[in-house]
Design brief:
By secondary structure, the chain is mostly beta strands. Helices cover 5% and strands 60% of the residues. The protein has two helices and 37 strands. The strands form six sheets. Strands 9, 10, 11, 12, 13, 14, 15, 16 and 17 form a nine-stranded mixed sheet that branches. An eight-stranded antiparallel barrel has the order 27-30-31-32-34-35-36-37. Strand 25 and strand 26 form a beta hairpin. The longest helix is centred in the N-terminal third of the chain and has 18 residues. The radius of gyration is 43 Å and the shape is elongated. It starts with a helix and ends with a strand.
């Protein structure tokens, strides 16, 4: 009766060994060292003990008896086969298992450093390719992207080099969120990149509602076309097209999520109704059909012979004298001063018919500055009034460069002890001015300008050369 129970137990042992997953063992030590391993199996009822045999090819590596259902031994990493023999109380063989593979693998601690990209947009299909800097990664190392809730998405290796790997992940399993990249060795050793994370951004659908200029002409420049809508993103691109006709804006500006600016030249495109497309960085496109009507250019551009009506501008603001030198000694700046500039563009028809003279203008400038004479407690107050000619040089984004030159009358007063103390001496002279400034004009006519005036003043008592930085605001009428 006992022999029958023993045979049934042996049969059970064989079945369990087919299913038991401990046949592949791992080692974290060097390949040339023996590593302690443990092999275990289900206990067979009525058995006195077991004999474990391990071989490599036809060479027997280990034969050892034990009365426990487990055995601890030491082997180098490699591929082996094993068999377990069941012994009765007389240490006779009553059963044995078939030879089964036993694989002892060397374990590696993977390291994940930096990876790219670190920001992508969500997608319903396709795949995401990640380039990662790694160390001790093997072909069977697994990689995972893990979101903030702990949900893992497994990727696959497409190319493995010495210290870099290319990974591919399915985009449809990566909803918007923040993900960490981790590597898991077949031994179970794991590492997660702590340098950067992957952010999957939500794709937002933009919409075009209106354009500020619907009717355009051939051979024209339109620097201020405002497109209004919603969900516009920084880094957008735009195109205007009709059949095979295409207009690419030479400049685009993101103002807000609801407003962008286009600057374009129509050139020789064919007249007709043109569609407008705006593409967000995510690749999502907003389209407005027949957004523009481009008309044939007139034979004679009479509009260019009409001077603009807003040719007068007034600016006022802060200025001071700096870097002065004279025949009397050194001076230091006093940070109190003001300036006023009244300008008139030469916009009459005589000037406007000559393209090279269109930006020409005349300026009436006045300013008050003060210098402190270091060798005595004297303040030199200078009030200047002069006429200057200027020329406008257009720059980008509504900025204009204005070189100016001219001259005028300067009144110099020397005060004792205080800025407006007792007047010791007063003198009127003349001055020459060479200046440069940069002006920004806003859509509502408001002006903002920064400049630097270099002034050479002549008095009967000597010369006074000075530099006058200034900042002013104003309005174009």
């Amino acid at each position: 009766m006992r022999d029958k129970d023993t045979k049934r137990s042996i049969t059970l042992l064989i079945l369990l060994l087919f299913l038991f997953p401990l046949f592949q063992l791992t080692s974290q030590n060097r390949r040339d060292e023996l590593v302690e391993q443990e092999l275990s199996w289900e206990n067979v009822e009525g058995a006195w003990g077991y004999e474990v045999i391990i071989r490599s090819g036809n060479e027997e590596i280990l034969r050892q008896q034990t009365n426990e259902s487990e055995l601890t031994f030491s082997l180098n990493p490699g591929e082996y086969e094993f068999s377990i023999v069941v012994l009765n109380k007389f240490k006779k063989v009553v059963g044995e298992t078939p030879w089964k593979p036993l694989i002892i693998k060397e374990a590696f601690q993977p390291v994940v450093r930096r990876f790219t990209p670190d920001e992508v947009f969500e997608a319903a299909g396709g795949s995401l390719s990640i380039q990662a800097e790694v160390y001790q990664v093997k072909p069977d190392t697994k990689f995972f992207l893990t979101d903030e809730s702990g949900e893992k998405t497994e990727g696959r290796q497409s190319e493995l080099k010495e210290e870099s790997v290319t990974l591919v992940f399915p985009m449809n399993k990566l909803p918007p969120g923040v993900y960490t990249l981790s590597a898991v060795d077949s031994s179970g050793l794991e590492d997660t990149s702590e340098i950067n994370v992957l952010t999957v951004l939500e794709v937002i659908e933009p919409e075009i509602r209106s354009v500020s200029y619907k009717r355009l002409e051939q051979k024209e420049v339109y620097p201020e076309i405002i497109v209004k809508g919603k969900q516009f993103e920084e880094g957008f691109s735009a195109r205007i097209f009709m059949d095979d006709q295409l207009i690419a804006p030479y400049e685009t500006e993101w103002i807000s999520e609801e407003e962008v600016r286009l600057a374009l030249i129509t050139g020789e495109v064919a007249p007709g109704r043109y569609d407008l497309e705006i593409t967000n960085p995510s690749g999502v496109v907003a389209k407005k059909e027949k957004a523009f009507i481009i008309e044939k250019a007139p034979l004679k551009e009479i509009i260019h012979e009409v001077p603009p009506s807003d040719s007068l501008s007034i600016l006022g603001g802060y200025t001071f004298a700096s870097g002065a030198s004279s025949e009397y000694g050194d001076y230091s700046s006093v940070p109190y001063g003001f300036g006023l500039k009244i300008r008139q563009d030469m916009s009459n028809k005589v000037f406007w018919r000559v393209p090279g003279l269109r930006p020409l203008g005349i300026e009436l400038g006045m300013d008050f500055t003060s210098l402190y004479y270091e060798n005595a407690e004297f303040y030199y107050n200078q009030f200047y009034t002069g006429l200057h000619a200027y020329y406008k040089v257009p720059l980008l984004r509504n900025w204009t460069l204005l070189p100016r030159f001219g001259g005028g009358i300067t009144n110099l007063e020397i005060h004792e002890t205080e800025l407006f103390g007792e007047v010791l001496q007063g003198e009127i002279g003349y001055a020459f001015t060479l200046a440069f400034s940069a002006q920004k004009e806003f859509r509502n006519g408001i002006l903002l300008e920064f400049g630097l005036d270099v002034r050479m003043s002549k008095y009967t008592g000597g010369d006074l050369d000075s530099i006058h930085p200034w900042m002013m605001g104003g309005y174009r009428f």
